[in-house]
Q: What sequence folds into this?
């Protein structure tokens, strides 16, 4: 359905389900991990990612774990404990998405947005924190 990898290609994956919504998260953790104004995730059902090599896991807060490549540091996924049925896959790691192209649905955690970044007028929903 979709495939991708980290920057150094040590970690490669395929997903057995099409990614659906695309969410741009502006929280400070995502910003810092991405080194960018926000981190984009597509959502896939939990357990639908098949790893050729398992990424490393990091418990990023009381609410979530994130995975990354131990060689190049690329962010790969985020799992939020309160949403066990889905997993966020870092959208920039995707190489190929067959069929369904995820559409941008929301900018979230705008209360933590970088002051120097202007959110584009792209029609996506906007939330101060988690989507309501
Ligand atoms: Zn890597
Ligand atoms: Zn975030």
A:
């Amino acid at each position: 359905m979709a495939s991708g990898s980290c920057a150094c290609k040590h970690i490669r994956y395929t997903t057995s389900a099409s990614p659906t919504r695309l969410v741009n998260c502006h929280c400070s953790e995502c910003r810092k991990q991405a080194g960018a104004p926000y981190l984009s995730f597509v959502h896939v059902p939990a357990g639908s990612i098949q790893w050729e090599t398992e990424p490393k896991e990091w418990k990023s807060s009381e609410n979530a774990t994130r995975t990354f490549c131990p060689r190049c540091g690329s962010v790969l996924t985020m799992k939020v404990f309160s949403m066990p049925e889905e997993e966020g896959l870092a959208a920039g790691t995707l190489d190929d998405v067959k069929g369904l192209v995820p559409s941008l649905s929301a900018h979230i955690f705008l209360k933590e947005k970088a002051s120097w970044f202007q959110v584009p007028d792209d029609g996506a929903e906007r939330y101060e924190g988690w989507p309501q």
Notes: Residues 22 and 42 are 4 Å apart (CA to CA). The longest helix spans residues 28-34. DSSP finds one helix and twelve strands in the chain. The mean pLDDT is 93.
